[in-house]
Structure formats: C-alpha cells, structure tokens
Amino acid sequence: MMESGKIKVLIIDDSAVMRKFLSDALSQASNIEVVGTALDASIAARKIKSLSPDVITLDIEMPGMNGLVFLEKLMIANPLPVIMVSSLTAQGTREAIRALELGAIDIIAKPVLDNPSMTASFSEMLIGKIRGAATSKKGIKRRGPHAPKIEINEKYSADVILAKRERISRNEHSEKVVAIGASTGGTEVIDKILVSLPAGCPGIVITQHMPEKFTEAFANRVNEKSKLFVKEAKNGDRLLTDMALIAPGGRHMLLKSDTTGYFVQINDGPPVNRHKPSVDVLFRSVSQTAGENSYGILCTGMGDDGARGLLEMKESGAKTVAQNEESCVVFGMPREAIKLDAADKITDVEGIISIISGIKH
Predict the structure, then answer these.
(1) Does residue 42 lie in a domain region?
(2) pLDDT per residue over 56-76, tens digit each?
(3) Does the residue 229 lie in any domain?
(4) Residue 48 in contact with residue 5, Cβ under 8 Å?
(5) Residue 252: inside a domain
(6) Cis amide prior to 248 (ω within 30 degrees)
(7) Per-residue pLDDT reduced to its tens digit, 242-253
(8) CATH code at position 244
(9) 48: pLDDT strictly greater than 60
(10) Do 83 and 184 lie in a common domain?
(11) Each residue of 309-351: pLDDT tens digit?
(12) In the predicted model, is pLDDT for residue 166 greater than 80?
C-alpha cells in the first residue's frame, strides 16, 4: 500500500476506452489510486512486479493469453485480489463464473458507456468492490475508522420492500426452510455447501450479491455438481425438498406460502442496503413466512446486509448461524450480525454443512 494510505489498483483490459473509463470511475474515490493499466497479460505481469498493486481488475478477453489463463497462473505465482470486469454475454457470464472458481474474488458487469445512470451505478459498485477486495483474506487487511468515502445514494432498509411485523403469526407449515445470504467470497462458500449436502435436505433459498445474468450461470454451474436441484429463482417457483433457489441478480427474492407450501416472489423494488438482491429482504420474508421452522445463515461479505434480517429471524424463533472470521474472505456481514447478537452459532463452512445436513423434517 502507498504511503498515502491509498489502495493501489492495476487495470487490465484490452480496450483503451474501457481502461480510461475504469480509471475515471475509480478516481472518484479519494482512497483509491490507479497505479497502472495494461492491455495484455505480458504487460500486466511486468506491471504487477514493478507496481505491487493491492487489487487488480481483469477483463477476460485479451490479445494473446486470455484472462482466465492469466488468472490461473497469477493465483499460483502471486495470489492477489482480482475483480473480473465481464461482459453480459452468455459466454462472458459463464467465463466469469469460471474465474470465481479459479480464485477471482468478485465480478462486475461492464456497463453501457453511453448510459449515464448505468455508468454512475457501476462506478459506485466498482469502488465498493475494490474496497472490499482490499480488506479480503487475499489481500492485506486495511481497516481504518477514518477511510475517506465518496458520496453515494440513499441507503434504503428492507422496509421499502416488506414492512416489518411486530408480531409474527404462527407458521401453518411444518416443513423446514434454510435461508443463506452472502456477498464477497460467497460463491465459493455456497458452491461448497450445495455440493456437499446429502439428498433429503430441506428447501434452501439463497441471496448472493451478484449482477444480473451471472446468477443463472452460477446456479447452472453448481447444479451440475450438486445432489440438489439448484436454479436461479423465477417468480412463483415452489420451494421443495432437495431444491435450492438462488435470487436472480438485479431482483429481490422473498419467501411466501399458501395452502400447499412455500414459494418465492421476485420483486423489482429499489436496492436495499445498496444491494439488489438484498439479504435483509430475504431474511425478513423468511422470518415472517417460516418463523421457527427456518434456519438463517449469514456468510462472508462486505458491509452489513443481512445482519438485521438475521436478528429478525432469531426473534421469530429461527435458528441462526454466522460464518466465523477465520473462514470468511471478508468478515463484514457476519461480524455485524454477531455485534447485534443475531447468531445462535458461529462456525466455519464445514460446520454450516453439518448443521444443514442434520436438519430433521
């Protein structure tokens, strides 16, 4: 890290226009400095050695060695926090999910550059992801009470999607439900959980902070390896045993019930805690719909989304779990939940798998 206390970022992208746009976007943050850019892997390798960046943004499409091959070699030779800046094409989303498996810490979708509202939102998200990456286990921890901040949009609570109830009516269904929330580093955790669970598990609803379209590719990838049926949720999907529904990127997911059981509702309301989907929204809906028959699990991620929702689940009679610091890539969201005394248990990923595997119907 530079003596100024700034997070040093290296941008790797074959497009000069995109390199300039990313540099300009990050210049809005006073505690981030773009120390260099590179258009291909060979230039990037030299600049990593000479500039010692704290975080790298990486495109997949590059001349010569592509981004996935470069990432794989980087994670062996010199592991650094890498954020993939990927296109929204079908191939781009699949390759971005593969990048997460290879060790990238997060992904963000390239915006349409002639859309001012989209580029402004992208800039805000990218800055947040850079800051999260700089505090990750793959980087040096740089937490500080006086870190400079940029102006950001108003932060809404779950109230804008679903009103909080002071009294939760008794759940008419006895079926158990598991709700999982995660952000930075969460794809690896969720993959491990879902691949490790045995058949016979209760229905699982998941909110993972991820851009639109990437969630479908992620769900399909995990589904190929899991004993459960894993899919990106669609409005009205029923939640059944041996099924995991993942909230679609860019939409909130809520758990609902009727006379035949549980189903999910997809909501296009405003971001909550600056996230869409939001873990707080999912957890609140589960607390109100399943109550004491539910389990809430909050995993790795930056910020505090899900902390208050986990407390609401606990207050409704649910069993609640927070991932421990040692196994988190970023110990933000679980830490905030623990501060609120929202977690009945604090454990690692193996402990989470054991808890879900042991749930009796």
Answers:
(1) yes
(2) 999 998 888 999 999 999 999
(3) yes
(4) no
(5) yes
(6) no
(7) 999 999 999 999
(8) 3.40.50.180
(9) yes
(10) no
(11) 999 999 999 999 999 999 999 999 999 999 999 999 999 999 9
(12) no
Which residues are known to be catalytic?
183, 209, 305
The closest of 68, 80, 60, 78 to 12, measured between CA atoms, is 60
Confidence (pTM): 0.87
- Tell me: do 89 and 179 sit in the same domain: no
Are 251 and 123 in a shared domain?
Answer: no
Length of the chain: 361
Spatial neighbors of 226 by CB under 8 A, at least 6 apart, are 194, 195, 197, 244
Could you tell me if residue 118 is left (phi over 0), alpha (psi between -120 and 50 degrees) or otherwise beta?
Answer: alpha
Q: Are residues 249 and 187 in the same domain?
A: yes
Kindly give the residue spans of alpha helices, DSSP state H, lying in 52-115: 67-77, 90-102
Give me the helices (H) in the chain, please: 16-26, 41-51, 67-77, 90-102, 116-134, 186-196, 214-223, 279-289, 307-315, 333-339, 349-357
Segment 78-83 mean pLDDT? 94
Pairing type for strands 319-323 and 261-267 reads unpaired
Tell me: do 116 and 212 sit in the same domain: no
Helix 186-196 crosses helix 214-223 at what angle (to 10 degrees)? 30
Decide: 125 and 29 in contact? Cβ < 8 Å.
Answer: no
Half-sphere exposure in the Cβ direction for 260 (13 Å, CA): 7
Instruction: List pLDDT tens digits, range 264-303.
Output: 999 999 999 989 999 999 999 999 999 999 999 999 999 9
For the chain, what percent of residues have pLDDT higher than 90?
Answer: 80
Q: In 3-state terms, what secondary structure has residue 331?
A: strand
Residue 320 included in any domain: yes
What is the domain range of residue 177?
170-357
3-class DSSP state of 356: helix
